[in-house]
Design a protein that fits this description.
Elements lengths: L10 H27 L3 E2 L5 E2 L11 E6 L5 E6 L4 H10 L3 E9 L11 E10 L4 H18 L4 E3 L2 E3 L6 E4 H9 L6 H4 L3 H12 L10 H18 L5 E4 L21 E6 L2 E8 L4 H19 L7 H7 L5 E7 H9 L21
Parallel strand pairs: 1-5, 9-10
Antiparallel strand pairs: 2-4, 3-4, 5-6, 6-13, 7-8, 10-11, 11-12, 12-13
């Protein structure tokens, strides 16, 4: 029954959504059992942090703490539990996971909500490719609990038990855009932006005067690469991102131009983002400063660097970590039309009733 114009709390609307909501709880319980069986400990992280994250295009919700002495200190709702969980790795934890409510401002669509649930997990001392196996198992568990052999969204389908296809970003750009992404003219020096703009125009992708290399990379990814991924019919792992597109990941051992970063897609929907974690504190600070300088240039704002996080990197062991959009996983497993459909109480939107 289609009931999009009713508020989520209307009995008719709730009855329409309830099967997916019940499935959500069952999928979460099954994933908890699997992680615990793998030797993980579930942790809880504070939503309030001194820094919400230091990525150029992430926007946070800001607030402040008021002490009894009248001092006011800025705080932010976290955009990810990443900083807090890495501090726990520095403290000595080795396998941890969490289902965290996270907050991102300016994001609302069928795939986005200002508040959503992130499943995040870390393995100390283990290679990031192990996380690929974790992701495949998570898809299978969700499908089994939901009683489906097919993930579906907006006409696209994917087999959740099929072994994910692993492709490098360079392979995908060569195959679907005809761009040799790692050619020296495209990745080295100030001229790389001009070369990237030339390649974008050649394949008919819009180029604006103020576009950065990253802007062009993202636009080509969205317009040329993601549609090809959508047509795959099975999960796809997009691996080995250019190093400057992976602010918290370490370089690969065999090629410093690319990072130990992958993203998991199903039905063309990005589900997970994973890293072999960067533990070089000086390099991490340098990257954060570059990101915040770019944020200030584009948006006239920036966020502070969490100095405790930088200090913790000095004690953090080699580790790998992944963040998965839990609402999106449930959406695909239940065939729901949006992430809000699988949230018990969606965030109300000003001027519009939540659906």
């Amino acid at each position: 029954m289609a009931t999009p114009n009713l508020p989520f709390w209307h009995p008719v609307r709730h009855a329409d959504r309830r099967p997916a909501l019940v499935a959500r709880g069952r999928i979460k319980a099954a994933l908890r059992r699997w992680f615990e069986g793998e030797g993980f400990i579930e942790v809880e992280t504070s939503c309030l942090q001194v820094s919400p994250g230091n990525e150029t295009h992430l926007h946070a919700f800001a607030t402040e703490e008021r002490t009894e002495a009248g001092v006011r200190a800025p705080l932010y709702l976290h955009t990810s539990p990443e900083f807090a969980m890495k501090k726990l790795l520095a403290a000595g934890e080795t396998r941890i996971f969490t289902f965290a409510s996270v907050f991102r401002n300016g994001e609302r669509s069928a795939l986005h909500s200002p508040e959503f649930t992130m499943l995040e997990w870390y393995r100390a001392g283990e290679d990031y490719t192990v996380l690929m196996r974790d992701c495949a198992e998570i898809l299978r568990i969700a499908a089994d609990v939901a009683g489906t052999n097919r993930f579906a969204w907006r006409g696209a389908t994917a087999d959740p038990v099929a072994e994910p296809e692993r492709l490098s970003v360079d392979d995908l750009f060569r195959r679907h855009a005809g761009i040799a992404l790692l050619d020296a003219t495209l990745v080295d020096g100030a001229a790389s932006q001009t070369a990237m703009a030339r390649e974008a125009r050649r394949i008919g992708v819009r180029v604006a005067d103020d576009d950065t290399w990253s802007d062009l990379f993202s636009r080509i990814l969205v317009e040329r690469i993601e549609p090809a991924i959508l047509a795959s019919g099975k999960p796809v792992i997009v691996d080995r991102y250019p190093i400057h597109e992976a602010a918290l990941a370490r370089p690969t051992d065999d090629d410093p131009r690319v990072a130990e970063r992958f993203e998991l897609y199903a039905c063309g929907v990005e589900l997970a983002n994973a890293f072999g974690e960067l533990t070089d504190a000086a390099e991490q600070r340098r990257r954060f400063e570059l990101e915040m300088a770019e944020k200030a240039r584009i948006y006239a704002e920036c966020y502070p660097i969490d100095e405790d996080f930088i200090a913790a990197l000095g004690l953090m062991p080699p580790a790998s970590g992944a963040a998965l959009g839990f609402d999106r996983l449930v959406m695909l497993a239940t065939g729901a039309p949006s992430v809000e459909h699988v949230m018990w109480t969606p965030v109300a939107e000003t001027g519009r009733r939540a659906t």
